[in-house]
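User: Okay, second chain of the day. Same drill as before: sequence in, structure tokens out.
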Amino acid sequence: RMLKKIKVVPLAAESLGVRSMCTYVETSDVKVLLDAGASLAPNRLGYPPHPREYQAMAECRERISKAAEEADVVTLSHYHFDHHTPSYTDWFCNWSSEDVAKKIYGGKLVLVKSYRFMVNFSQRRRGWMFMKTGGSYAERLEIADGRTFEFGDTKLRFSDPVFHGPENSALGWILMTTIERGDEKVLFASDVQGPMHSPTLDIILAEGPQLVIMGGPPTYLAEFRVRDEHIQQGMQNLESLARKVPATILEHHTLRDEKWRSLSQPVFDAASETGHKVFTAAEFAGKENNLLEFRRRQLFESEPPSPEFEKWMKLPQPKRKMAK
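Assistant: Same drill. Structure tokens below.
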């Protein structure tokens, strides 16, 4: 309600049943599709994706496809497959194909993270591949690191690369994007994870956005693949953010944790103390949360797949990728 000049529509996210932060943003000057990708974890808790997850993926992919028809600009914050759509066929995790990618990137202005500067090895390789495939369908492709693009009275401003999580993260760097129209600003911060790196929080607060779309800390990986102190730092910075920014969409890694709501309670409390709001993407869009990944075991027990699906699950992974 606080945004009159910038329309924000979440399209795919953990609260909508898939791994993604894909968001459509529109002003009277330009229509932008942010991080047009979605994926499912190949294995979580010993289970592959449940049919309910594929149903959610089909719905999210349909929304992304329709938004791509409208969009003038498509952005890419980094080269993980839940943030961009690769051009190879994979109906197992990414629901991607050359045709899917072509429909998203074809004929668009595509603004991307550099794959040569401040990038780790795997993203350098994926970025190089994207330039040869999905990026080659673009009407124009521009490296966006640290740059501002103007469309009438709307500015699309990209940060310099910031850490994908904690300082010197092995996962590399990402770009944050600010959409500015008049006195309104929306800031999209995909995998900063809270942010875990406090200088990234300073960059966000210096922008003074009314709405931040934030990927939270991966609490489900605490003490397994991510140090607990980094998780705690991400949560503390998220609290600071919720106190200072009128509205926050909290999404992504945090919502892969069964206990995400209780673990995030200090963030919700910090927001309410200052009259601010924290939403999931689904809640922001006026939908019910559809959190599926951490419920796999329960879903396979309570809603057993059809014999046809069971047969498909037994195929070798390369064959599963090729069979929708």
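The two ends are 39 Å apart (CA to CA).

User: Thanks, on to the next one.
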